[in-house]
Amino acid sequence: MNIIRSLAFGVRRKKRRKGVEVCAVLILYFIGVMSSSLPAYAAGVEVSATSALVMDTVTGRVIYEKNGYQKRSMASTTKIMTAILALEKGNPEDVVTTSRKAAHVEGSSMWLEEGEKQRLEDLLYGLMLTSGNDAAIAVAEHIGGSVEAFADMMTQKAREIGAMNTSFKNPHGLDADGHYTTAYDLALITRYALQNERFAGIVKTKKKKIPWPGHQWDRVFKNGNRLLEMYEGCDGVKTGYTKRTGRCLVSSATKNGWQAVAVTLTAPNDWEDHKKMLDFAFGHYQVETIIEKGEFMKTLPVTEGKEERVHLVAASGLTIPMKKGDRDTMRIEYDVPYFTPAPVHYNQELGNIRLYINDVECGTVALVANDFVERKDIKLAYERIIKNWLMIFRNRERGRGDS
Question: How many domains does the chain have?
Fold first, then answer.
């Protein structure tokens, strides 16, 4: 902005000079250049959140971010990882016994009693709908053997997903030293979790009834995610709050053929933040198919094969949200070997392509062989080579004798 102020000052001093039009044009140019490089939150979306981010669930493309890579506490949005890890490591029909530690944990609760037995899946409804800290402890002890061991498993899983700036110290999200994430990491974790059908089904459930042993009535949970009622297309995911951290929220919504995940950390007005962010994503982007499944992409030389080349096609399609101007900066990079030895089998993976927009990777597609290339009979080939050399040698010897 200092450049703009300097140019404006120059215009005031030279406003009677002949070159005033040139300065005015320069001002407009620099304003255009700088505004085009401003982050999304400065270009029309104002949110109350300290950190915020919107991500496409298919490709992981970041649609919008504000301090999206800043480490912060996450409150009960922690439970997204707790739930997906439980679904992957446990059986939904497992019977879990509530320990004393689980029954007496502070904060939000599904009112588990010490010694109570519940199906793992029912605990996950209590975990995600009513944000039961008791359910989180019960799940952690059942899957990991202890809260500490389970927290280590959570952190390791985050690393596997690609959330490298996330560390878990507990399964519920109560404030703890060393317990943190970023809006970007939390979006990555949620994007991964939503690929699990059971997880996706739980987090979009608005109301759930589960047994309550020893009582004449069942437990009834109502989902605390108000966006399920407030925002058309919302299909999850999790709320969170502690006094120290403030309000946190992860939501997902599907519109216009694609799904986006929105994350806010420390957001006094989180419901409105998410509506603005999702409206921005769905209003400024539309889904476009860049590569069709089976589309021919490249030929690759084959050594020692009966055919000299193999045709490479896209193993899957690539459909991503695009905004105006994205195609102007789009480029594709091939990551394939210079050649491949025979035999080559049909559908054999032989590399990949990466799509970049504004030099940011927005998608990857594997390349597979669309042909079968047999290997030459090497023994026969060598015999022919030897025979040819012998024939050449004999012809030379005969030529010498005739002379």
Answer: 3
